[in-house]
Hints:
With 123 residues, this protein is mainly β. It has helices at 58-61, 74-79, and strands at 22-27, 39-48, 54-57, 65-68, 88-93, 113-122.
Amino acid sequence: xxxxxxxxEIDFPTGDAPNELxxxxxxxxxxxxxxxxxxxxxxxxxxxxSSGEEFDSSWNRGESIQFPxxxxxxxxxxxxxxxxxxxxRELVIPPHLAYGPAGSGHRLSGQTLIFIxxxxxxx
Length: 123
């Protein structure tokens, strides 16, 4: 079983990037369930689907982060509800649910993104 306290590793993806959000539970939690619009505390790792390059990680900063789901990219708003505290989930998020098409002004626009998220608390 995966230790949720440790930084995950993501295998380099194969095949074509998906056109829709993909949700895969790595570890199913048994705590409180995240609901749409909830405030959550998470650890996460994000990589680009096309290159496998890591672009962000709360583990690298040494602390979890807390935020309301409604303030996040659509892929997180759609992909975290239903997850339970103690769980680890992988989200593969196409550009239209992340930072928009290429040229949208964000450095990750046009990119399909992979996140591994550990849900630590629902506040």
